[in-house]
Amino acid sequence: MKAAETPDETTVTPGERPADAAVETIQREMTSFARRARASAGRMHPELSLVSYTLLGHLEERDGCRATDLAAHYALDKSTVSRQVSALERTDLVERRVDPDDHRVQVLHLTEAGRRILAQVTDSRRAAFRERLADWTEEDLTRFAAYLERYNAWQGAAPAGDEK
Questions:
Q1: Can you point out the beta strands (E) in 76-164?
Q2: Given this model, what pLDDT does residue 140 score?
Q3: Is 54 exposed, middle or buried (0-12, 13-18, 19+ CB in 10 A)?
Q4: Is there a contact between 87 and 52 (Cβ–Cβ < 8 Å)?
Q5: pLDDT tens profile 94-134
Q6: pLDDT per position as a tens digit, 36-47
Q7: 56-79: per-residue pLDDT in tens?
Q8: What is the spatial distance between Cα 58 and Cα 81, in angstroms, rounded to a whole number?
Q9: What is the reported pLDDT for 37?
Q10: Residues 6+ apart with CB under 8 A from 105
């Protein structure tokens, strides 16, 4: 199927509701998307995993935050975030600064090297998306973007093992 084509229907097996088949297709395709995103992250920058990229992006967007804020935002275990942040500090992409309003708190910020690498990877990712979506209509792109925003805006509890 070409990217610009809109599938008319999802394959439904006998006795299966179309909505159930669609949910199964969505789950399978999102899993494929996540695997592709993780694999392509290494090609964009060999030292920057998809998780590291998203953490750097969040730090840039928020102009710094605490590690606990990162853990809460991405629904990750604090130890997972701690390991990721330590790796980013070792590669001089992130630094800790004392919060001027509360000296007990350390805030994570991008270093200049972190900003440069994030910008390079962001440019590469945008180019890859533009290439992949080049023959989609403006209407398809707008609809797809709205569906993704709607999906990601859901505030329900993430099941164990769900990746954000």
A1: 94-99, 102-110
A2: 97
A3: middle
A4: yes
A5: 999 999 889 999 999 999 999 999 999 999 889 999 999 99
A6: 877 776 676 677
A7: 999 999 999 999 999 999 888 999
A8: 13
A9: 78
A10: 66, 98, 99
DSSP letters along 40-105, please? HHHHH-TT--HHHHHHHHHHHHHT-B-HHHHHHHHT--HHHHHHHHHHHHHTTSEEEEEETTEEEE
Q: Is the dihedral of CA 137, 138, 140, 145 positive or negative?
A: positive
Six-digit token string for 158: 């993430």
Alpha-carbon distance 123 to 140, whole Å? 22
Q: What angle do CA 79, 49, 90 make, to 5 degrees?
A: 65
* Parallel/antiparallel/unpaired status of strands 94-99 and 102-110: antiparallel
- Contact predicate 108/95, CB 8 Å: yes
Measured between its terminal Cα atoms, the distance across the chain in Å is 27
- The phi and psi torsions of 108 (rounded to 5 degrees) equal -85, 135
Neighbours of 27 (CB within 10 A): 10
